[in-house]
Every structure is written in structure tokens, then in C-alpha cells.
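Shipment paperwork, digital attachment
Item: protein structure file
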Amino acid sequence: MKRQKDVYTSKVKYKVSTTDRIISAITYIVYTIFAFVCVYPFYYIFINTISSNDLSQRGKVLFWPKELHFNNYKQVMQIPDLFMALKVSVERTVVGTLFTVVIAAFLGFMFTRETLWKRKLWYRFVAATMYFNAGIIPWFITMRNLHLTNNFWGYILPMAVQPFYIILCKTFVESVPKELQDAAEIDGAGTLRVFFSIIIPVIKPILATVAIFAAVAQWNAFQDTLLLVTDSKLYTLQFTLYQYINQASSLKALVNSSTSGANLAASLAHAQTATSIRMTVTIVVVTPIILVYPIFQRFFTKGIMIGAVKG
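Attachment content:
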């Protein structure tokens, strides 16, 4: 018995050949280069935001920050109504993501129910909207007729139903054993009870995946504010920073082209440039949504793989 125990507990040593070592080394090198290519653009933008604006404008900052300062971020933080715009962006991201995830999960579940009247027809109708679009003008007229201009729900409702997310959820639900739903229905559970008690706990990976996609789409959305909103209290962070970029760039161009503004140009010699403004705004906009990704990362791969493969 002791000898048998020693057999199970002993460590098995494998001899690694020279070829395997070479392949492993090449693999590590390739993935290191790939990781560098992915990370460097974001790193490059960041070091240019904290370096001399003049050197950054001339492309002299490549790998290390030069003449370190944080004035760019201080000036961005002084934008009027910046934090109100941040609040609007966070609210639309949270509420919009919640609506999108719940609707995608429910419709994906319903399209797998054989008891749904004309199930295939409705599913094809929803999927067809991925390929056909009426255009901006009809969309704007529709939004105006629905009183969704200068309305917070104008950010939420148009993006609530997303065919791609519905297809992902439907495919994932189809991979769930049918016996789970049958057993619940035998015990007297209705459609909603089956959905919330059986389906939702099982399809968490795909819900997390959809949540990532929806949150990024809501956070980066810009065109709807430009077309639908004139009330500054509903401006999003992206639109507010877009206005800041235009105003700052216009002021810089005016100073550079003015013959009578020599003193003003001299006083703004160390001020923000068009390049520093764009890069600083990029960091401010991208950083919050990047912090969301690690929360859902452990569900992301599983959700995509299972949601994309049937059987």
C-alpha cells in the first residue's frame, strides 16, 4: 500500500528536448512582441500627455517622458461642467448596459421557445435589421416624433435591442440542456420563472460578454448627443471633450495666424497644443472603460466560445 501511494505521489519528470526549448523560446518572443505592439500605442499616448507639449508636437517623445509635467490633465479637469458630463456618461453606460443585457437575454431565450408564435419569423425580422438601415434622417425624424430629443431615454432606448447580442444569447441558451427547462415547467414554473430562475444563472458568461460590448458602445457613443441633444445638462463626457478639442484647436490656430497676437502667442508657448489636447482627451476617455474589462475578463472567453459554437 505504501509503495502504491509513493507511485501516485511521486513527481513525473519529463525530458525536454532541444527542439521543444527552441519552439518555446520562439513562442515567448513572438508573444512578447505581440504584447508590446498592443500596449505601446496606449503607452505612447500617455507619455506624450505628461511630456513637454512642444517636444510632443514635434514627435520627439517616443519611449520615455521628457520634461515631466501634468498641466494637460489640470487644464482638462478645469473644463466647465466636466463632472456633470461624466455623471451623464456613467448613468447612460450603467442603465443602457442593463437594458441591453436583459433584453438580449430575454429575446434570445424566447427565440428558443417552440411555443412562441411565429418564432422563426420574428427571429429573422430582428436579424435582418443588422443589414438594413434607413439612414440618419429617418432615424432623427423618428426620434423627434417619439419625443426622445433632449431626453435621457434617447440614449437608452435606441440601443436597447441589438440583434448581434440577441443572436449570441440565443446560441448560448440553445447549448443549455433542455431538461432543465422541462423539469421546471413540470414543477409549475411559468416562462418568466424559467427565465429568471433557470436561464439567467446558467448563461452568466454570455451575459458578461454582452455587458462588455454594450458598456463600451454606450461609453463611446457620440453621434446621438450631436444629433439629439441641445441641453448642456445632457451632454456626455465624449461630447464635452469634443467641444473642448475644437475650442482649444481654434484658439491655437487663431493665435498662430494672428499678426497682432505676438505677445499672446509667446504667453501660450508652453500651453497645450493640438496634439497634447487630443492625446490627453484620449487617455481621459479610454481609462474608465478599460478599468471595467478586468471585472468581466474571466467570463469573456468562455462566453464568446460557448456562445459561438453549437452542439
